[in-house]
């Protein structure tokens, strides 16, 4: 899988760290609500990592069943304010959520990771589909807030318990209810590629018309996991950390087209890729279109990889070096365009830091968290394209100059799969077509580059 280790499998919250986080959250809420004359209720200064170990699932054993509670009855209110009949039962958590939702919008984006309008819309979607319901004690808004607080601030159950003043069992139940509810409709938030040329390509002469049939980029990332001692072997990646190998197809406007989570960290890049294109719910590529892929993936129909044994990219691009042939020029522009996946992953991790250090949940829950986080990421992008986190990463990320390439002594990228591995998936004619398509793009690009250089 592509470089993407984002956390250490031993990154647990200590009692002191959780106490500090709770104090910080309390101060942030206090500050953001002062301007509207509101203050957050005090939070107990206590916290322990709550390792909720459970049964270990596999990537094909993800359940979408809703948990129900016999202790809590339905409430009939459908409005967003706390109904009168629930006022008497409103907990500190309910009041906290009410204050955030009636305070400045910045308070909602900071604490619930999305603005108030789309928070309320998500509540309506989950309620309208019958996936969540008000109870005598906890409204849908508070249920969603509990979930978003946990994933948006990487809280353990104990910390959320102290923040919302509910039992650990109640916190866990509603966390899982919301997780399963969003998981069950996650496909609604993953849109297939459109037929139009992405503006990121059509409006940039470095990429158009050469990549006019490109719909996005495929890349991978290792998300840390917590598994039992007996299960750790397959999940230990090449860096010695426990992770799940996640493959994602991303658009150039920072949305996910497809996500495959749950593969063991030791699985090879080609193994995960092959699963993504061969499984029943496979990654589908529109006819005549393709995704860009990293050098660790094969150059096959529907997926164009850079040339191996040719300069590609580096963190440092010294000035003064020009591409020497069509392959180098192709690799450079391929690298620049494919960087959209990096920005997409960065926004995802910034919004949902629970993905950065392993949550102490059953494996199937950890796998669901990845898919649900990507679904919410897409939902926010579709509903509010100028969301503050998307704006931040769009403004902070700039494409590198194409007159800069790594020095010649830089490490050359090499393919890490064997061609015989492709025989069972693609025939010789298909592989030849993929090679010719890449060569055609590189040749056209190089001819135009030389012409432009000659004309000054």
Automatic annotation (TrEMBL):
<dbReference type="Pfam" id="PF26138">
    <property type="entry name" value="DUF8040"/>
</dbReference>
<dbReference type="InterPro" id="IPR045249">
    <property type="entry name" value="HARBI1-like"/>
</dbReference>
<keyword id="KW-0378">Hydrolase</keyword>
<dbReference type="GO" id="GO:0046872">
    <property type="term" value="F:metal ion binding"/>
</dbReference>
<keyword id="KW-0539">Nucleus</keyword>
<comment type="similarity">
    <text>Belongs to the HARBI1 family.</text>
</comment>
<keyword id="KW-0540">Nuclease</keyword>
<feature type="domain" description="DDE Tnp4">
    <location>
        <begin position="218"/>
        <end position="378"/>
    </location>
</feature>
<dbReference type="GO" id="GO:0016787">
    <property type="term" value="F:hydrolase activity"/>
</dbReference>
<dbReference type="Pfam" id="PF13359">
    <property type="entry name" value="DDE_Tnp_4"/>
</dbReference>
<dbReference type="GO" id="GO:0005634">
    <property type="term" value="C:nucleus"/>
</dbReference>
<feature type="domain" description="DUF8040">
    <location>
        <begin position="92"/>
        <end position="184"/>
    </location>
</feature>
<keyword id="KW-0479">Metal-binding</keyword>
<dbReference type="InterPro" id="IPR027806">
    <property type="entry name" value="HARBI1_dom"/>
</dbReference>
<dbReference type="GO" id="GO:0004518">
    <property type="term" value="F:nuclease activity"/>
</dbReference>
<protein>
    <submittedName>
        <fullName>Putative nuclease HARBI1</fullName>
    </submittedName>
</protein>
<dbReference type="InterPro" id="IPR058353">
    <property type="entry name" value="DUF8040"/>
</dbReference>
């Amino acid at each position: 899988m592509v470089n993407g280790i984002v956390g250490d499998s031993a990154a647990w919250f200590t009692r002191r760290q959780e106490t500090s986080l709770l104090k910080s959250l309390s101060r942030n809420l206090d500050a953001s609500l002062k301007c509207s004359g509101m203050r957050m209720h005090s939070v107990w200064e206590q916290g322990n990592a709550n390792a909720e170990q459970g049964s270990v699932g596999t990537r094909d054993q993800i359940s979408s069943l809703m948990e129900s509670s016999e202790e809590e009855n339905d409430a009939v209110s459908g409005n967003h304010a706390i109904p009168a009949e629930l006022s008497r039962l409103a907990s500190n958590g309910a009041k906290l959520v009410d204050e955030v939702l009636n305070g400045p919008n910045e308070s909602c984006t900071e604490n619930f990771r999305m603005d108030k309008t789309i928070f309320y819309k998500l509540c309506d979607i989950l309620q309208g589909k019958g996936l969540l319901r008000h109870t005598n004690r906890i409204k849908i808004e508070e249920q969603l807030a509990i979930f978003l607080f946990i994933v948006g601030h990487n809280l353990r159950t104990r910390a959320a318990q102290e923040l919302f003043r509910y039992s650990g069992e109640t916190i866990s139940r509603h966390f899982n209810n919301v997780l399963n509810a969003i998981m069950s409709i996650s496909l609604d938030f993953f849109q297939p590629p459109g037929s139009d040329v992405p503006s990121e390509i059509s409006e940039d002469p470095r990429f158009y018309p050469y990549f006019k049939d490109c719909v996005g980029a495929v890349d991978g990332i290792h998300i840390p996991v917590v598994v039992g001692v007996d299960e750790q072997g397959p999940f230990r990646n090449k860096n010695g950390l426990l992770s799940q190998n996640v493959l994602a197809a991303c658009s150039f406007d920072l949305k996910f087209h497809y996500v495959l989570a749950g593969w063991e960290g030791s699985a090879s890049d080609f193994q995960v890729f092959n699963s993504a294109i061969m499984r029943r719910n496979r990654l589908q590529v529109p006819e005549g279109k393709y995704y860009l892929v990293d050098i660790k993936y094969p150059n096959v129909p529907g997926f164009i990889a850079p040339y191996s044994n040719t300069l590609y990219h580096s963190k440092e691009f010294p000035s003064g070096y020009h591409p020497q042939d069509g392959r180098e020029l192709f690799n450079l522009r391929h690298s620049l365009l494919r960087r959209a996946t990096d920005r997409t992953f960065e926004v995802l991790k910034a919004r949902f830091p629970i993905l950065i250090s392993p949550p102490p949940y059953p494996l199937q829950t950890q796998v669901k968290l990845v898919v649900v986080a990507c679904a919410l990421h897409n939902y926010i992008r579709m509903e509010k394209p100028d969301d503050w986190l998307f704006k931040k990463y769009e403004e902070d990320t700039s494409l590198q100059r194409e007159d800069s390439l790594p020095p010649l002594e830089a490490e050359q990228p090499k393919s890490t799969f064997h061609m015989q591995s492709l025989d069972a998936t693609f025939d010789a004619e298909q592989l030849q077509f993929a090679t010719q398509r890449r060569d055609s793009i590189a040749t056209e690009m190089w001819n135009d580059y030389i012409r432009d250089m000659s004309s000054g």
